[in-house]
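REQUEST ID: PR-0412
SUBMITTED BY: lab tech R.K.
PRIORITY: routine
TASK: structure prediction, single protein chain
INPUT:
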Amino acid sequence: MAFSKALPYILLITMLFTVRPTTAQLCPSFYDTTCPNLPSIVEEVVRQALQTDARAGAKLIRFHFHDCFVNGCDGSVLLEDSVADGIDSEQNAPGNLGIQGQNIVADIKTAVENACPNVVSCADILAIASNSAVVLAGGRGWEVQLGRRDSRIANRSGAVSNLPSPFEPLANLTVKFANVGLNSTDLVSLSGAHTFGQSRCRFFQGRLSNFSGTGMADPSLDPIYRDMLLEACPQGGDNNRVNLDPTTPNEFDNNYFTNLQDNRGLLTSDQVLFSPPGAATTVDVDRFAASQEVFFDAFGASMIKMGNIMPLTTIDGEIRLTCSRINPLPTLADM
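STATUS: complete
OUTPUT:
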């Protein structure tokens, strides 16, 4: 083999696997020239998904959130198991079990590839789709920062340790957010995404009758709301789904926070934002409950901040052709 022929291949492999701190900045105009209709393409697919799946928007935001908390916003959560590629999927971690919406992401990627081949990363698709989901549910969008590239690795162990759990106390949640550079206001505002979507009963049943092994209900749970939940989650109904927001379940608004004030937060990780005496997060819950505009401002700012967690940019990572698997490496025959 002539060294001159092998050199481009060696350089490409080096570029794909070199990990370095990135100084490149994300920006909202990143695809203005290469894919100018990108936001409208993504929004149209999300709109179509919502016609048959009211939870489509919540699924997309969950993917973006769970992506950014593990190795940064690099699309790694979308990778499925592959022995050949050495991928042990983050979707196998407890915090991702049952995660849904892969079909919606695949539909968006197909539409984007048809318009702008090999240009837009899956990580950026998650960011844009999250914004579209909020807008289509009646919320206010934000200036989505773009220019991320996709990882060629997954981090299952990171997903196990880094993802917030629905069972966790406030102190644990605060630490996990701080570990990725997000503060307590970000914790409260981003939790406001639970203003739409659903949860399976298994994630809150312990609050209904045997909270922390006491044999009693969670004292921070409104008794009337508890009775509603007991009816929705009978014995054997672990996988039944309940709206995270019992008031306006499919709308993006600030009712999540008024629910917390009424002790009607569904998950432990929801209600702990308001109920513990002296909790620092109570101030933000009250602010967002009092003003939907204040919540929208804070949510957009926190989404931008979260979207900037350790993105791959410039020559790091790749633009995946299929979001669920890494691109095949080129061979010398391709050179």
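NOTES: Strands lie at 198-200, 241-243.
REVIEWED BY: pending
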